[in-house]
Write a structure and sequence with these properties.
The complex is a heterodimer of chains A (about 350) and B (about 80).
Chain A: H1 13-31, E1 49-54, E2 57-60, H2 61-86, H3 93-113, H4 117-137, E3 147-151, E4 157-167, E5 170-182, H5 202-206, E6 213-217, H6 227-248, H7 259-264, H8 267-311, H9 316-346, H10 352-355
Antiparallel strand pairs in A: 1-2, 3-6, 4-5
Helix pairs in contact in A: 2-4, 3-4, 3-9, 4-9, 6-8, 6-9, 8-9
Chain B: H1 4-19, H2 22-43, H3 48-79
The chains are: A alpha+beta (about 350), B mainly alpha (about 80).
Chain lengths: ~350, ~80
């Protein structure tokens, strides 16, 4: 290929494919059989168990999604590592992306933390990459859509199941939009009815089939479970204290209990003592705002996608997906930036600039 | 008409909606932060990285108010 642009007659094939997909999507959403129509989602806040459990510990769908995000991250890391070992000088592909990402993160940490940057960087960059991977993998098709069916709660509207095909010995069901069923009162034993892509074998199929069904997905975005962002938030805030003690020694805790000022400072020492108490509350508020920021954005995004997807099946959702990609990246960056600022703030003495 | 459970459920949803009024302030705050950031970047394009970092930081703190409102709303709907 020369640098000069060779005039080539381009046949616009791809745009016709896209247009055909649009038409097929519109037909599937509005004109066709009920199985293909989008159903309105069931909003569930806590993560639901997938039925798998390791040593009595139930694996929820958000844990499964986090593990997949981890897997994706590890695969990318291995590919980047292999590229760096291969000795090629010109970065390409995934490695290029990683180089850009790490450089960007490093500059951000460097700007905020100064000489503590090398020690802070691994922690916050790990958080960024995990949150980014979790937010991006969650947008793949199949998340929140494939799962086992269960009887819906009393009074809510479920849909009748329709058998599609057999995957090996596992029957696969779809939900029929044209047959909404109001969930009836039912006992606990009906809760685990056999369902779409059921993980059980014949035993599951032999159980009673649900009549008004909802899908309990196998995979749900990690950050739509409160545990994921809160775990990261607790880790960050605890590490803030660890880095503070690492940098300043025991005098770090004088931020929270300014006893020295209480003895020497008079009335202002007393005020500072109260401020120290507020600092303790602030640390807990950090956990709260950290956790709910990520959770709120991602959960609201997921909700928006599924509800708008159910209302207008075509044209609008792609733009919302674009929006979600943007927001997933922004939230990962905000989490990373706040963690950086908090941790690097802890490494700086509060009174150094006042007295010296 | 005298269904107490339905009344409570409806009031819960109403309360959650009212709790989200707190997002108004956060929206205004984020807008002000963005406006100030863009003006600063327009005046001094060389300082863009610093301004951007601090702008996003300020936005995140302003947004925290909306997040507390969201937390209250979620607690009202799911926990209370």
């Amino acid at each position: 290929m020369t640098t000069e642009a060779t005039p080539k007659k381009r046949t616009p094939v791809k745009r016709w494919i896209v247009l055909a997909l649009f038409v097929i999507g519109g037909y599937a959403a509005f004109g066709s059989i009920g199985v293909l129509k989008p159903i309105s989602p069931v909003v569930v806040l806590p993560a639901e168990p997938t039925g798998i459990s390791i040593a009595g510990f139930p694996i929820t769908n958000t844990i499964l999604a986090t593990l997949i995000a981890d897997l994706v991250l590890i695969l990318f890391a291995i590919s980047a590592y292999r590229f760096s070992k291969s000795g090629k000088q010109v970065p390409s592909g995934m490695y290029n992306f990683f180089e850009f990402l790490v450089e960007f993160l490093w500059n951000s940490v460097k700007g905020a933390a100064g000489k503590w940057a090398p020690r802070i960087f691994p922690v916050v960059a790990t958080i960024f990459l995990l949150v980014l991977a979790a937010n991006m993998t969650k947008l793949f098709p199949g998340y929140e859509a494939i799962g086992y069916m269960k009887e819906i709660h009393e009074g809510k509207t479920g849909y009748a199941p329709v058998k599609l095909f057999d995957l090996g010995s596992i029957p696969v069901y779809g939900l029929d939009k044209n047959h909404p069923v109001i969930g009836a009162a039912h006992g606990e034993e009906h809760g685990e009815a056999a369902g779409g892509e059921a993980h059980g074998e014949e035993s599951a199929a032999a159980k009673e089939m649900c009549t008004a069904c909802e899908v309990v997905p196998f995979l749900r975005g990690s950050a739509t479970d409160l545990n994921f962002p809160f775990a990261l938030a607790v880790i960050t805030v605890v590490l803030t204290q660890v880095y503070g003690v690492w940098a300043l020694g025991p005098s770090y805790f004088s931020k929270y209990l300014p006893v020295g000022q209480l003895v020497s400072g008079g009335i202002f020492g007393l005020i500072n003592f109260g401020v120290g108490f507020l600092e303790i509350i602030l640390e807990f508020a950090k956990i709260l705002s950290f956790g709910f920021r990520l959770f709120g954005n991602i959960f609201a995004g997921t909700l928006l996608l599924s509800i708008v997807g159910a209302l207008t099946a075509i044209v609008v959702p792609p733009f919302l997906y674009l929006f979600e990609v943007f927001f997933g990246a922004i939230q990962a960056y905000v989490f990373f930036l706040l963690a950086t600022v908090f941790i690097s703030g802890a490494t700086v003495s509060h009174h150094a600039e006042e007295h010296h | 008409m005298n269904d107490a459970a339905a009344f409570i459920a409806g009031m819960k949803v109403l309360g959650a909606g009212l709790a989200m009024l707190g997002a108004i302030g956060a929206g205004v705050g984020v807008g002000i932060a963005a406006s100030g950031g863009v003006q600063a970047m327009g005046r001094n394009p060389d300082a863009t990285p610093t301004i951007q970092t601090n702008m996003i930081l300020g936005m995140a703190f302003a947004e925290a108010v909306a997040i507390y409102a969201l937390a209250v709303a979620l607690i009202i709907i799911f926990a209370a």
